[in-house]
Amino acid sequence: MNFLKSLFGAKATPTDSWPIFPPATPMLDLAKETAGPLRFNTPFTEAQVFGRPDECRGNPAKNGHLDYVRAGFSLEYEAGLLVFVTYFIGPDEFAPKHEALIHSRPQILAPNRPPGEIHADSTAEDLVAVFGPPESAEVEENESILTWSFGNLTVEAELGDQAHMRRLNVFLTR
C-alpha cells in the first residue's frame, strides 16, 4: 500500500499499518463514556481496535478524523485525543461523500434507561425512550436538534425532514 501511495502521490497516514477488520458500529455507553472499547480523551492510536479507517483526514495524532464509513461512524481527535464521535444514521448532506458509506444503527446504553438502538426511522419520541427527556430542543423548518448531557459528554441528535434521524453527535463537554 505504501508503494502505491508513493507511486501515485497519495500521502501516507499514521494508520496505514493498522490491520483491516470487518466494519462494526461501536456501542455507545454513556455511563462509561465509551464508543465500543474507546474511552473519550484517549490517544488516537487506541482506535486501532477498529482496524484501518476508510479515510484518515488531517493528522489524528494532532487534529484529524478517522472515518469508518463502512460502519457508519467517525472519530474526531484534537491534540491526538478522542473528543467527538459521529454516527451517520440516515440521509445527511454533511456526511462523508464516500461510495461505501452506510447508515449505522448504534446500540445505546444510557444511565438508568433500558438499552436502545437508534436508526434512520427513529423519531424524537424514540430518542426520549433511549436518552430520557432532552435538556434542549432547537426546532427549525428542515432540522431539529435534541441535546442531552451525560457526565462529561454532550449528545446531539440531529433530525431532518419528517423528523427522522440524520446523525448522532457525541462529544466531550468543554
* Count of individual helical segments: 2
User: Radius of gyration in whole Å, from Cα?
Assistant: 16 Å
Structural class: mainly beta
Described by strand count, sense and barrel closure, the largest sheet is:
8 strands, antiparallel
Order of H and E elements:
HEEEEEEEEEHEEEE
Number of domains: 1
Instruction: Tally the beta strands.
Output: 13
How much is the average pLDDT?
Answer: 91
Helix content range of the residues, please?
under 10%
Bulk shape: globular
What does this structure look like?
Strand 4 and strand 5 (63-68) form a beta hairpin. The N and C termini lie far apart (38 Å). This protein has two helices and 13 strands. With 174 residues, it is mainly beta. It has helices at residues 2-8, 124-131; strands spanning 28-29, 34-35, 38-39, 55-59, 63-68, 73-78, 81-88, 107-109, 116-117, 136-139, 144-150, 153-159, 165-172. It has one domain (26-172). Residues 1-7 have low confidence and may be disordered. The strands form two sheets. The protein has an eight-stranded antiparallel beta sheet with strand order 4-5-6-7-13-12-11-10, with helices on one face.
